[in-house]
Every structure is written in structure tokens, then in C-alpha cells.
Amino acid sequence: MSKCLLNSTFLCQNVAQKLRSSFRTAVPKSVPAPLSRRNVTVRAGEDMEDEFDMSAVGLEDLYDLVDASEMNSRAAWLPGSYSPEYLDGETLPGDFGFDPLGLGADPVNLANYRESELIHGRWAMLGVAGMIAVEASGNGSWTEAPLWAVSEGSPTYFGADVPFDFGLIVAIEIAFMLFAEGKRSQADAESRLYPGGAFDPLGFAKGKNEEELNRLKLREIKNGRLAMVAITGFYSQALVTGSSPLANLAAHQADPWVENIAKYDAILKNAFP
Description:
The chain is mostly helical. It is built from nine helices and four strands. It has two domains: 3-71, no CATH class; 107-271, Orthogonal Bundle (Chlorophyll a-b binding protein).
């Protein structure tokens, strides 16, 4: 009788799901010798007359296979990569199992990283929008913004003079940041991340069910990550070319064969010997 090799995860998943629905709450956790992290191969006849031996396989082993299969059947940051157990793809918005260094294995660290990523993403979105808006409106570029402080000139806001000196502006910024950080430290974890109220002036989150809120959270974290990549690119671009994003784009469009990364090959070689 010809034999076929069935995929162990697929077969065990079907068996375990049936067993789980009927017996998981009734079956004790103690099982035969665990087979976790082992390859389980089951051979069966095409007519399924042969009964495969399940005596060496505990139910918890099958449950582990199902859990691993479900966890790794979702979208991953790298095709073929495996997600760590603490990243289940459901608890955290935008979770694609990316933690190659295992930095989030500690639940406390994972919560801190989640909060830091969201906050930095929001700052990056504000920064990118500000960099583009000022330059697009014809009021200079972000690379020129700090020059007034260095040259002892007058600070400006969208081209208009600001009646404050550098020290007063720094003091006001510190005061506002201390107030915000103080309020943030008094709130619970979820309120710190999504305070709502005055921080949702357009009411995007009002009247939304859980599914809609999760969709908004996913969009926010995705755009925040993209903004962090963008602002890193803006800084790198300014260091290499000494120019701003829109100015570089206009120069490249005007003469793409000259205004490109090859023009700055010598600078890049000196920066990264």
C-alpha cells in the first residue's frame, strides 16, 4: 500500500482542534513526555486504514503545534520568519513579530517599548509635516530654522518675527514638556497611550467600536513608523547634501543624471570608510 507523507503541522492542527473543542477543559495538564520543539512526522495510508500511534503525543503537544501554526500563519515582517511567543499579533497594534534581538521578552520592557515607539512616532509625524509645510509655503527650509539662534538673529515663525529670545523659548518648551510628562506619569498605561479628550479635537475616536478603534491605532502606528524613517532620511540627506527635502527633489527632477547619490559618492565614502 502506497504511503504519503502528511505535513505534521497541518495534520496535528486538525486533530488538535477537534480534541481542543471537546476535551481541553476536562483534560489535565499532565501529559506524556513533551515533544515541544521536536519534529513530529505521521505516516498514514491513502485509504486511512492504518491508525497512527498517538500514545507518545500528549494533548498539550498538539495544542502547542496549533498555537505555533496560528501564530506563524499571520503576516510577518520577513517571509519565513517566526514570531516570538510574546508577540501574538493581536494584543499590540502593528505587531508583525519583529523583535530579532528579543528586547521585548520582558513584559515590562515590551510595554515601555510600545509606549516609546508610539510617542516617537507622533513626534516624527509632527516633525515631518512641519519640515515639508514650511518649505512648501516658501518660508525657508528646516535646515535654516536654527540659524537665527546660532547667528544671534531674530527667531521667526512662518516668516514672521517672534518677540521672544532663544532663552525664553527654551524655558517655555521645558515648562510645557514637564507639565505633559507629569500628567502622563499619573495616568494608567492605556490612558497614556490614547488619552482622548482634548487630544482628539476632531473626534476621530468618538463613537467608534473596538474594531474601528483598532483600525485607527494600526494606521497611526504604521504612519508613525513611516515618519520615523522619513525624518531619519531628512537628517541624513541634510548631512550629506546640505539641502532640504523639496530642494533636493526639485534639483533631482531638473537634472536626474547629475543630481543623484552618485554625486555625493566621495562624501559618503568619507562618512563611512
